[in-house]
């Protein structure tokens, strides 16, 4: 659907509350917003576990690298699209979600996010501090989708933060990051990621026909060859309609 018709924008503007998150229903579609400019999350009321937005579908590409992760760390709750997908399709996986905005967490029932249980824990926490203080615990996958009313969160795009991400990832782990269409975010993330994860272990992908950008950072050993990575990357691009922007030598 078109999220930015003049009528819809006018309705959203009337609901905006100084950057506070709010819910908007349009037929079968429920969306999360901080203002009228950006859709933070979208859900089909008749199919709440469906991944409606293209970039969220692409972020499940981590399953091509690890089809049975033990523990996934999700940074940014939003409307819970990825949380609900993982909860439904990965019944043996533990999910930890970090969300700094208590007002976003307060909307979880409206987006039909399951209650906390032995498998799922949604924490009101600052991701930068949480990762820095993680000691012995490690995770298989980090799904980073950290945005607030002003856009990408700068603290979640620093060398120190990505260094902590790499530290808590197990060998073979993967960090998949939504960079939206923010050029500054992409430049910083790719620069830091290249320095920490190494050549060929960072992929910059773009959704075909849209302007959503993703970064994939891989904590893999040197025994994993470019040929292996190329095969996985090719499958990911084909399955999720993605274009490889960098590194071109893997294309």
Automatic annotation (TrEMBL):
Keyword tags: Polyamine biosynthesis, Transferase
All copies of domain PABS, residue ranges: 1-175
Matching InterPro entries: PABS, SAM-dependent_MTases_sf
Taxonomy, superkingdom: Bacteria
UniProt entry tagged with the keyword Transferase: yes
Residue numbers annotated as active site: 145 (proton acceptor)
Keyword Amino-acid biosynthesis: no
Family to which the UniProt record says this protein belongs: Belongs to the spermidine/spermine synthase family.
Listed PANTHER family: THERMOSPERMINE SYNTHASE ACAULIS5
Protein name per its UniProtKB record: Fused MFS/spermidine synthase
Organism, scientific name: Herminiimonas glaciei
Taxonomic lineage from the root: Bacteria, Pseudomonadati, Pseudomonadota, Betaproteobacteria, Burkholderiales
